[in-house]
Amino acid sequence: MKDILIISNYYPPEKGAAANRIEQMALQLKQNNYNVSIVCPLANYPTGALFPEYKNKFSVTENREGITIKRLWIFPSVSKNKLIRIIAILSFSLSLFFYLLIKKTPHKVVVQSPPLLLSFIAVFMLSLKNKKIILNVSDLWPLAAIELNAISKDSFSHKFSLFLECYIYKKATVILGQSHEIIAHILILFPEKKCYLYRNFPNHIGDKIALETKPDRIIKLFYAGLLGVAQGVLELCEKTNLDHSNIELHLFGDGAEKKQIETLILSTKTKSIHFHGMMDRNDLLKKLYSFDVAIVPLKTRIYGSVPSKIFEYSSLGLPILYFGGGEGETIVTENNLGWVAEVGNYYELNSVISLISKTDKSILETMKNTIYKTAKINFDLNRQVRDLIAKEVF
Fold first, then answer.
1. Are strands 59-64 and 67-72 parallel, antiparallel or unpaired?
2. In which band, very low, low, confident or very high, does the pLDDT at 243 lie, cut at 50, 70 and 90?
3. How many CA atoms lie within 13 A of 243 on its CB side?
4. Does 179 score more than 60 pLDDT?
5. Which three-class secondary structure state does DSSP give residue 165?
6. Alpha carbon separation from 166 to 33, 94, 142 (Å, rounded)
7. Based on CB atoms within 10 Å of each CB, which residue in 75, 118, 132, 286 is the most buried?
8. pLDDT for residue 209
9. Is residue 251 within 8 Å of residue 274, measured between CB atoms?
């Protein structure tokens, strides 16, 4: 059995796409006879506070589904203060530095990026030990940070981030990118680098839910996930016209915009938007069986980004309203997964929502069945991992 280590800033029981993505990779490698171990922080995401079972602990070693997980100390925070956020990232980076300095690690190591500083520390230490570094790039930083106005172009933060980015690409043995745009970007910088597409497909063995299309005229649109700046859910609530339609918007999740969204719903007394908070994944799946359409928004078009929700919801047979631009829009359109609206264009979004409101429930039922079959064929995580193993990526 081959040993492999995965280093990530997120891992269940934390919620969200990043944690789920790494867990699915770990489970797939385990199913293919790899002895998988994880190094990650003490669980704290997305609340920015340590989960109760990890409070007052410096490190924890545990086992989840046959995978050994080493959780290291972190000073967690979701503060909007940049200095506090930097301290939070530095805290786990230092924990990881000393862990890799002292502990023996397998020859093959998967490093998740971003965060850039964390992946830099990991790649730096692993390159000194001559390890095979498999860099898994899910977003392009600092490019995405500039597009989200998180940092200013040509600032010190930007130039420092560019240095970190180039270093990890250069030192990585092989690179996995979640989109064609990510791979194209890396190959411009390092044309000879071995790069492979690794989509964030979910593994829904035993997860198929019996979607129920109710014959009433109410069409339930939902968003489930991080309520952060990049997703723009607060603005979505403010600018989406639902009051005079037969559409309800249901929100599930947690994040920086949570309190503002709750305040907005209370102040406007709208009956069209319902906030349910954060739910356990299994409970959420049960809740979704009666919903009709999933909305996947981004505040702005982020080069290289492909939200994993596209693959997750389509694998359940849920039609998608995509509002994020870029490669994700192409995937939804080419696979007939639902509808798209130009990112940031709320006039077009409201026009599409109006179109959905006039869609007969029998058509939605047919869409659900077709989308499920399409996703099962085109978004196969098992096949993707087996293909990469055959190419000796892992």
1. antiparallel
2. confident
3. 7
4. yes
5. helix
6. 33, 21, 11
7. 118
8. 56
9. yes
